[in-house]
Structure formats: C-alpha cells, structure tokens
Amino acid sequence: MLNIDVEEERKVILREYRKLLKKAKPFLKDGDAKLIKKAFLTSLEAHKDMRRKSGEPYILHPIAVATIAVEEIGLGTTSIIAALLHDVVEDTDWEMEDIEREFGMKVAPIIDGLTKISGVFEYGTSQQAENFRKMLLTLSKDVRVILIKLADRLHNMRTLESMPRNKQLKITSETIYLYAPLAHRLGLYAIKSELEDLHLKYTENEVYRDIAAKINETRAARQKFIRNFIGPVEGELDKLKWPYNIKGRPKSIYSIWNKMKKQNIPFEEVYDLFAIRIIVDAPVENEKAACWEVYSIVTDFYKPNPDRLRDWISTPKANGYESLHTTVMSEKGQWVEVQIRTKRMDDIAEKGYAAHWKYKDSYTNPEQTRLEQWISRVREMLESNDTSAIEFVDDFRSNLFSDEVFVFTPKGDLKTLPNRSTALDFAFDIHTEVGAKCLGAKVNQKLVPLNYELKNGDQVEILTSNKQKPSKDWLRFVVSSKAKSKIKDLLKEDKKMAALEGKEIVFRKLKQMKIDPRDEVINKIRAYFDEKTPLDLYYGIATGKHDAKLIKRFQEEVLKEKDNSNHRIQSLNDANSFERELKKVKGQDMLLIGEDLDVVDYKIAACCNPIPGDEVFGFVTVNEGIKIHRTSCPNAPELLSNHGNRVIKARWTSQQEIAFLAGLQIIGTDRVGLISDVTQIISSELKVNMQSISVDTKDGIFEGKIHLFVQSTKHLDKLIDKLKAVRGIVKVNRYD
Ligand code: MN
C-alpha cells in the first residue's frame, strides 16, 4: 500500500506554485496573477486523481513546465497559463471549448497546438514524422507552442528515472533526434545542452557518470587556472567604462564526450574543457565597440590564434547568436577559448527566442529578422512540400544541424544558406524560376559550374538560359531543402508531361487490340514491363525505355492464359474472402527470409517488387523456385485462391541484425545507365541494403564508392562477381 500524506503533499504543491509565482512576478501586469491562479486551480482540480509514474501528484508536472517556461525560456503570462493547462485537454474531461470559454482566445490556440502534437510518437515511423510536421506547422501560428513543448520535454527528461526502460529509450532517442536540434535552432543553448547531457545519461550511463565525476574533480584546478588567466587582464578591464563579469564555464558532458570520441582521446587530453566568458554590460549603441575593446585588452596579454577568430557580432548566426570568440595561448602554453559578448547577447544566447522579444522594443536588432527569416523558411518548406513526411523530417533535420554559409548577391545583399550549399542552391533561394533555368554562376567575377560549393563571403551572380531544364543529377549536389523539393517538383512535372504521351500510346495500342484499358489491364502491363507505377510505365514508353510494340506480345503471353482464372479473381474481389485466404497462409510454417540466405534461394516477384519491411508471402513456382510477393500484389488474390498449397509464409527478418557493413570501390568507363545497372544488382538482385553511394565521373571514367550491408563474405564475393560482369565496369575492390 502506498502511504500518502495528503497534508504534506498539499504543502509541496503550494510551495512549488509559490516558487513559480515568485519567478514570474517581475513580468506580471495588473490582473495577471489572478489569471495564473485560476489556471493553477483549474489544473489542480482537473488532475486531482492523477499521479505521475514516480508516484507524485500530477499537478507538479505542469507547475514545473510553467516554471521552466518563465525561468529558463523567459516566457510571460499567457505561456504560464498555457503551460499549467497543457495536459488538461489531453488527459482529463476538459474540452477545447471549456478552455476557450474560461481562458479566452489568447490561450486556447496554444493549448490546442500542444494537444495536437502530443499524440503517440513512434520512432522512425511516418506517424512520428507526421506529428513532428504538425508541430512545426504551429511555428507559423505561434512559436510559443514549441517553446512550451520544449519545456514539457525538458521536465520529462529530468524526471525520466521513474519510466520503464523501453519508454526511457524511446523518449530519449526522440529527444536527441528532434528536440535538442530544435532547441539549438531556436537559440536555447542551455536547454539544448541539458537535453543532450540527459540523453547521454540514459543511453551511456557509465560514460556520463565518469565524465561528470572528472569535471567535478578538476573544478579546483580549473578555477585556479581561470584566476591566473584573468589576473593580468583585470587591471585593464577595470578601466573600461562599463561593468563586466567573467565566467569560466565547463563544456557540456555531451560535447566533451563527442570530442573524446571524435579525436579518440581520453578526458585528460581534451584541452578545451571550458571557455572563459567575458560579459560587458554596455548600452546597445556601444556594444560592438565595447566587445572589440575587450578583445584588444585580452590579446595585449595573450597571443591569439588568428585562425580561430569568430566574429558573430558583425554577422550573427541564423539562430540569432551573437558573440566574439577567440582562442588565445595562456602562460602555461595551453590554448583557451575566450568568448566576449554583452549582457544582452548573453541573455539571448542562453534563453534564445523569447529573449529576442524582450529586447525588441529597445533595439531593432537586425538579427531578429534573421531568426524570423528562418521561421518563414520552415513555413515555406512546410507549405510547398508534398514529399512524404519522413523525407521531410530528414531534410529538415539536416538543415537543423548544418551551420550556415554567408554569401552576397551582386547588389551586396547578404544571403544565408546551409553549409555546403552550391551555386544552384543559391539560384533556388532567389527564385524557383531562376533555379530551374540556372546554367552556371559567376562567383567573384569568375565563371563556375552549377555544383560550385559556396564559401563565406562569395559574391554570386546566377547565369540563366531559357533552354536549361532541371535534371535528376541536380539532386546530387544541392543541399537546401528548398532546392531539393523544388527540383523534385519540377522533375515530377516533367515526367508527368512525358507520361501523358506514353499513356496515349498505350491506350491507342490497346484500342487496336480491342482491349478495354481497365485499371486491372494496365496494372498487368505495368507488371509485365517491371515498373512500379502506371506513371513509370507510361514514362518508360514515352522515353523509349520500353517498346510499345511489346504490348502486343504481352497480350499473347499474359492475357490469354488468364481466361480461365477470371472468375476466381471476381470471387476474391471482396475484401473478406481475401482476408480469409491470407489467414490460411499465415497459419503455416515460417520462412524467414534473410536468415538462411545460403540455403533458401528465392526470387523477388517482378509484379510487385517487395522490399524489406513489406508484408510478403512466398510462392513456389514450377521452374523458378520460390518467388516473393507482397500481400498487396495485384496477383495475390489469384495466387492465393488458385494455388494455396504452393504458398509459403515469409517474413523479413531485420537485415541490420545479421548484416555487416562493407565498402566497395567500383571503377569503370562511364556510360548512360551504368549507375542504375549497378544499383539494380545491389538492391534488387542480391537483396542487399545500400547505406550510401557516391559517384564521381571525370573524363569518362566512373568511380563509385558504395557502403552496403551484406550477410557474409561469401555473399559479398558473389556480389563482386556480379558487379564485375556489368558492361563498362573494369575493377571492383573492397575497402574499409
Ligand atoms: Mn506534459
């Protein structure tokens, strides 16, 4: 039995609530406290019978989230109310209308947003991606939804201890995958670091504890070092017109761990365990001068490394970060990073987005618009995007992580693009039309190709031609989501136009043969030509990949023998009987494809091309061994009903589990279709998973590097033999 001291719990709740009020007090206007109290009492009542996994009263969670929102993000009354109520609609009988009626139209949309994105996240599924997409959509409405969601996530991570292990892993991987990068992008450094540290704590606990202990042990030595370092400088800093403050902050556990891993060194050899931060409290109009003045003083005493000077005051980062960083040589012969910034800059660096607004009235900071630009770019991406949600999240994530490159238009306007952007990315950033017709560019007056990688400070002029058309190759060297999605759209349009022609040809042929072009017929022709969709089929016909004359042969070979089975197809067309047939099959013994690859040979059916993860079944053919079909294959009803005894249950085992990663280098003479021949062999013939492929062609020589998962060396040898047989391939090597 759980022993609950109700009186004691009431005291704890009130204490936490008062703490929240105290933090909020400086920002409150008339009547605010009353509203907050109402929200608190509402939440208290709504959650009164609920407890968290740890056993404590549930209300402590919303109070904590609200406290984080005020204290660590700098949000105000509306957000406090929303944070207090954030789980009410989801977990209790309260409806959105109740919130609207009781708390008005300022709070309601935020709660609505928070409720919508709290659905079940399933790592790596489209559901999760879809949820994340929804969450970002709220950016365009009210960024506070995401800020409160981050506060919610932070508190859940802080209290992850009491969750079962599988939940811990799920929540923490989601955190490192999406929330930490998002916090970074919104400039919430402190929260981002804490999320990362907590992630490490729950995934590699020993490492985490080890590093944390060592940071603790070295504290005294570090403080001594900092005192010695500051000593000589202080006298000069005292002569400044403004008050200043010096901090020596250790790096986060997570970033130290990353450094140790990356450079393969022990803790003791990480030289920049901490940075020294000098914060000047200078008024806005003197900020820049003040920071450089401090820089000048520091470098009078210590020699700076010229390669490590970072001026994010003149050109702030896209998330609004402003600071002057330099690395100098200390007396002990150790490099030390010194960060110089003003009080305002420090506030923004720590608290991010919300702090921007605080300073908005007093100072029109041009970098605020940069953050707004980023948000509007996200919005644009969300609105123009018709790619699948998972693809979208991947694109978005790669943009979250990358740093920026700064370039100029011919008129001298500054543009910020993701790192490694090319001239073509720049063209698409200006306008889709400019991108679509981009022929090349002039960078600093010199002619460069489309795939030229932009460098900081480049001045870029785009050259266009009306004859230019987007090509699939372009996708290989653009990095911005905008360029990628626009090129895909344009290619799709192109393909659709061409496919229209192909469709006409197919329909004409069928008419000549007096066959009604029903979906079923088209689907069979598609399977006959080994294409995935009717669009691919039409496109293949239009571009000459397939010979339309073959449709006649298709008629002779395929349609004729179907006459006798037609009535069976009809009888299976209702969903129930199909399900029934499937169930029969599912009861049988399993064939785990992938586990005994050497023993059980099989072929992938061309009609439906199943891939790992698809629901599949095996079919024993007369001459070709076992063929694997998708359960959704258009031929499935027929096979299952007519030849049930030849059907074997099949299931994909996880390839990764039993596979290891190998690298292949492929050299040959370039020709049209070579890459597709190579990838065809790798992915469909030998059922190998490719992790990455990079291809270089120069003067007609083709060099490809492929990372793939194979089951055994025997398997790999077989693959190498097959690849060697491809026309044009000269050499295939393994490398590590
Ligand atoms: Mn919550």
TrEMBL record:
- Database matches in PROSITE patterns: TGS (PS51880)
| GO cellular component term, pick one | plasma membrane
Q: Which residues form a coiled coil?
A: none
Q: Which GO terms describe its biological process?
A: guanosine tetraphosphate metabolic process
Xref: Pfam families: ACT_4, HD_4, RelA_SpoT, TGS
Q: Which residues form the TGS domain?
A: 403-464
Task: Kindly give the InterPro entries that the UniProt entry links to this protein.
Answer: ACT-like_dom_sf, ACT_dom, Beta-grasp_dom_sf, HD/PDEase_dom, NT_sf, RelA/Spo_fam, RelA_SpoT, TGS
Quote the CDD domains the UniProt record gives: ACT_RelA-SpoT, HDc, NT_Rel-Spo_like, TGS_RSH
Chain's role: In eubacteria ppGpp (guanosine 3'-diphosphate 5'-diphosphate) is a mediator of the stringent response that coordinates a variety of cellular activities in response to changes in nutritional abundance.
Instruction: Show the PANTHER family listed in the entry.
Output: GTP PYROPHOSPHOKINASE (PTHR21262:SF31), GUANOSINE-3',5'-BIS DIPHOSPHATE 3'-PYROPHOSPHOHYDROLASE (PTHR21262)
Similarity annotation? Belongs to the relA/spoT family.
Q: What is this protein called?
A: Bifunctional (P)ppGpp synthetase/guanosine-3',5'-bis(Diphosphate) 3'-pyrophosphohydrolase
